Every structure is written in structure tokens, then in C-alpha cells.
């Protein structure tokens, strides 16, 4: 990101056409109402499922004393993982100076905000005593990785919201007066949120400075959030969790899931909002290359995580690995490794598969596999405690997620989609001023 | 204490089980006082509520701690309630000067499961909810199977306490690891952290939730149990406060359990009531701890299952029995 903004672009006629393109889909349309209605009604069902759990206790889940962390915790890890892409695209790639991330950066931040915000709720859905949530603050013990996690997740969410909102301010100001097709209340919201922005060079200087500080701050925060999440497992003594590479292993896996999520959202914005001019084939091609890169790094960590212990086959580890490689979880394990990692890497090496539609399909498979990968990290380890499972009901021996549990998990996903839909539908999804500025500079250079 | 050491020195080198002597029960002193005062408080309270229902009575008859019946004027009378704050405070502090320890003799365990039922009765648990469970163990194919009672190990380096985000599970000065189910948020991080599978979670309304309603929570008994919180073995710290042996230890018909105080270097067998010198017992019988390589430093010791006086008979299927 440039350290200074030449505000000449505001007088450029190109700004009008860019603003018109990007603001056209903003507002309430019939499609939006139907889609939100569908999401809302489905969410009602999921909220009812949570009411059942609130009333009866966690007995309504498939969790029992041996496998006491299941779908909810896997889902939590998945949410935190996916949200990390905001940091990867806006910060790492943006600060290095890759120009192609500009129109994607806001999409990445939307994903970061939506997943990080709901991740907190996911954790609450796993609590036996959700009404005692305040105890975490009232009686928090700094030794516990849960306290670290709560701290960094909220920090990450705060910085992500700021990184979404700050670059949006000039766009909100630009949009005022160009919003005649939208409802009055939305125009009022724009009026309030644009905080009297009037495009002075001083305002832009301060804005860029603030954004730059946040972009730097969010890198260690994002590393912390997922490293600490991995420590929820790695600080225990259990085979399968007792690993020293869990931090980077989780972090690299997070970039795979997040990149796939960005591609999916990009595809639907591009096709629904007719923004092919801004989200071009080139952007999908670059995202494909990014996905290959992060997937190869993640594959490397997978090889470390599974090959080294399986070379030694320590008794307790051996039982766990046997279950993954050829036992109860083998189908899920190999599907996730092949469909979610190896095959996408091979396909995406060819530019033929880095086209928008094939990218969408590959990304959906990768994202689903990423969810099941978290399940495989969380659940099988608990299936094999050090001491034998004896004299307990048959239902305690295996973990079988229930309908209620699944509904609550689906509900959290719906909530993420609702947040993304609202942010994407009511606000400019591509940074207008950054596009206009870039265009202005390009034109200027070619004139010279 | 010096007398004790002298007694013990006579039996050095013999089998630990022969070192019987009639030492005083180490619990008696501190237990007597609290037992009497608790009884007195209960008597005063019931006397008061009986008299309060009689119209026109100005005096109330009460039983004192030293067994005298006296009459007290009604004015200036105060109800004594079992105070939650007091229970919480004393429960977190623990019993000063003690370091409790358990020794489990695997050679004697026949899987009678009396320890389990006694424990579940005291703590209002269902038959499959264990503070203590007896497992069928076998180290390898070629070695003999044996029964292993498994309570909480009350580790000196407890992984469960380290991970608890709200200080709901904690380590007391007397070595006991307890749970405060008034504070527990039900995150189950401690279950994930415990390598001994010693903890249970109340997935549903506890067995006696209805009956226990209104009873002030006793952190040393973990009753009333609560839905959505953790429970586990407490070394029967409510009984220790009264100077008694834990429920499981007293209930065992086969002499499996020894319980005592590391500071006094003495443990008492719950069945025979014989007292032994802890260090001797462990030395002579090659006592060991469960998975010491994990660094948890358990306070429960096991004596190996050697020279068993009975055939190993596993007539209860450990997987299907419930």
C-alpha cells in the first residue's frame, strides 16, 4: 500500500463508472430477501436445537466422558483457521506489495470478521455452563491456554473489524449521493459511518498510517490466535496431540482453508454482482497459485506430523495412527488427505484448473475437507485414552454426533453466511477508492 | 511420632504386611472436635425449629456439645445455617499439616466393586459414573491380567489444574485436588488434560438433583452434583475432616486400600484397620506410581499384583456389563 494518496482521482471521471459498477448490487433485492429468508428460517431451527441443549444439557450431543470434545471443538478450530486468511491476504501479501490483492482484500477481511466473530459463539455452544461465561473474566487464571485463546481471539476480531472498517470509510463518503436506488435507512447508515469524511489529503495520510499499523499488528496476533488454539491440544499428554509442531501445523492448515473460502466468496460475488471487470480470471489464477503454495507447505507439515511418529510406533501413538491409517477413521483420513490436499495441489499446478469455475469446485472440496481434517485432529485422539475404557455404557465407547449437535453446528455456519451476506450486500465489496486511485495512476503513467 | 518410628524400625526388612501395631488412628484428634461441633449445631437447629412451632413458648430446649439439655430464652436467638461461604473457604484451604496418600495393593483386588458402590452412594452418582473404577489390566500378552482400582491420582503436578481457565479445579495444601462445581464452566479442558481418565462430566441432570435441591454445596463432597460441571474423586475430603477413612477405603472387603498421611509416614488399611509405615510398605513391596514418566507425580501408589492368593477370574465383562 502506498504511503501517500494522490487525491486527484476524486476528480477523475473513471471514479463515477467504478463507483456505479460496485454500488449497483448494493441494497435490497428480491434475491437477497429470498436468500436471507431461507437462511433465517433455517437458523431458527438451529436455535431451537440449541434451546434443547440448554434445557437438557450436553446429553443431547454424542459427547461422553471419553470423547468429550467433538464436533463443536472441531468446528471452533475450523472457524479460527478460516478467519486467518484476512491476515494472510491483506497483511502479508499487501505489505509485500502485491497489487493484485487489492480488490480481494476486503473479501478476505469480511471472511475474517465473520468467522472470528462466530468462533466465540461456537465455543459457548460447547460449554456445560454457558451462563457462567463471565467466570472466565471474573476468575480467569492466566496459566490456562483458554484464557490466552479468549484474549487473542477478541484482539484478532477487533483488529479485523478495524481493518474492514477503516478502508471502507472513504468508500462510504464516495457512495453518499450515489445511492438513490437504495433505501433511506441505508443512506443514513452510510452518513453516520462515513464519520464526516471529506477526502482531505491529511485524512488519507492518517488513514493510511492507521491501516499500516494495524496490518503489522495483526500478523503476530493472527499467529498467536491459531498457535494458541493448537495449544489447547498440544499442551496435553495425549498421543496424537502431544506434538511440538502443532502451532505451525495449524497455522499453515489455516491458510489452506481460508484461501479456499476466499475463492468461494469471490466466485459468487463475481457471478452474482457481475463484477468480472474487477475480479478477473487473473485474480482466480493468482488465488490458485496461492492455494497451491499454502497447500504444499501444509502437506509438508502433515508429512512431519504423521510420518515421524509412525516410523517409531510408540505403543500409544501406534494405536492412534493405526486407527487413522487403516482403522475406524481410515476412509475419512485418506479422503481428507487426498481430496483436500494432494489432488488439489496436482490439479492447481495446471493453469487449466485455475479458471474461476474449476477453482470454485476445488475450493469447495478443500474447504469441506478442511472441516473434516479438524474433526480428525480433535476426535480420534480421545478415542484412545491411556487407560482402557471399561464398565461404561456401550454408547460411551464410540462418538456418534447427534442431530441436535449437527443442527447447532450448521447454525453457526449459517450465522457466518448471514454475516458475510449482509456485509457483502449492504456495503461496497470492492474498495472503490483504491480501484479509482490505481486506475488514475495507470492512466497518468500511460499519458506520460 | 518418635514412638512410631521406633516401632517401624523393628520390622525393617520384613514383608510390609507383617508390620502391624496398634498405633493411634492419626485422624482422631482433629476429627473429634469438628464432629462434635457439627452434631451440636445440628441439635440446636432442630431443637429450635421444633420449639418455634409451639405457640407461646418463651424458652427453647437445646442439647449442648457436652450432652446437657438446657433451656435458652427465645430472644437473641439466631438460626445457624450451614454456611456456603464457610464450606467453600475450608474446602479450598484443606487440612493443614497433612499430605494425604493412598496405597492400593493389586495382589488383593478381586474386583468386588464395593469401593465403587460406596463411593457412588456417598456422592450421589449413577452406576456408570465413576469417581473410582476397577479396570482389568494386562501389561502384555504374556503377563497375567489383574484388577486395578483407579481413583483420581491427586497428582502433585496436576495437568487438570494447570489447564482450568477459572480456578474451578485446584490443589490444596494437603495434596488433594478438588473441584468447585459452583464455578466450573464445563469446558472439559481438564478431561482432555487428565491422562488417567479420572474425571466425569455431568452430561445430564445428576441422579439426585431433585432430592439435593436446597442443600448447601459441600465442595469436599461435591454434593449436590450439578449438570454441566465436572466431578471426580475427592479422596473423601469430607470424611478426612471428620477423621474417618475415605468411603472406598472403608468399604473394601479385601484389604486392598491403605490410606494415610505422608507427613506422618503412616497409612491405615481400610479393612483390617492396621497401620503401616508408608515408606516401608512401598519399599518392601516395590510400590510404584501409574505412568510416572508423564511427570504428573501421583499421590496414589500401587503395590504390584504378585503372590495372589486367588485365581484371576474375570466373570464380569468389562465392556458389556452396563
How would you characterize the largest beta sheet of chain A? Answer: none
- Work out the number of β strands of chain A: 0
Calculate the terminal CA-CA distance of chain B, rounded to whole Å: 47 Å
Question: At the fourth CATH level, what is the homologous superfamily of chain A?
Answer: Formate dehydrogenase/DMSO reductase domain
Q: Briefly, what CATH class of the largest domain in chain B?
A: Alpha Beta
Poorly predicted regions of chain B are 1-24
Q: Using only CA atoms, what is the Rg of chain A?
A: 23 Å
Name the overall outline of chain B.
Answer: globular
Taken as a percent bin, the fraction of beta residues of chain B is 15-25%
Low-confidence stretches of chain A: none
How would you portray this structure in words?
The complex is a heterodimer of chains A (448) and B (322). Chain A has one domain: Formate dehydrogenase/DMSO reductase fold (Up-down Bundle). Chain A has helices at residues 14-23, 30-56, 71-83, 85-96, 102-126, 135-138, 145-165, 168-175, 184-193, 201-234, 246-273, 281-312, 315-325, 330-348, 356-383, 403-426, 432-447. With 448 residues, chain A is an all-alpha fold. Chain B has 322 residues and is of the alpha+beta class. In chain B, the strands form five sheets. In chain B, strands 12-11-10-3-13 form a five-stranded mixed beta sheet. In chain B, strand 11 (266-269) and strand 12 (275-277) form a beta hairpin. Residues 1-24 of chain B have low confidence and may be disordered. The N and C termini of chain B lie far apart (47 Å). Helix content of chain B is 25%, strand content 17%. Chain B is globular and about 75 Å long. Chain B folds into two domains: 2-25 and 99-303, Alpha-Beta Plaits (2-Layer Sandwich), CATH 3.30.70.20; 33-85, no CATH class. The interface between A and B is large, with 49 and 48 residues.
How are the SSEs placed, and which strands pair?
The complex is a heterodimer of chains A (448) and B (322).
Chain A: H1 14-23, H2 30-56, H3 71-83, H4 85-96, H5 102-126, H6 135-138, H7 145-165, H8 168-175, H9 184-193, H10 201-234, H11 246-273, H12 281-312, H13 315-325, H14 330-348, H15 356-383, H16 403-426, H17 432-447
Helix pairs in contact in A: 1-17, 2-16, 3-5, 3-11, 3-15, 4-5, 4-10, 5-7, 5-11, 5-16, 7-10, 10-11, 11-12, 11-15, 12-14, 14-15
Chain B: H1 2-10, H2 28-52, E1 59-63, E2 69-73, H3 84-93, E3 100-105, H4 114-123, E4 133-137, E5 146-150, H5 159-163, E6 169-171, E7 177-179, H6 189-193, E8 199-201, E9 230-232, H7 237-241, H8 247-251, E10 257-261, E11 266-269, E12 275-277, H9 278-284, E13 300-303
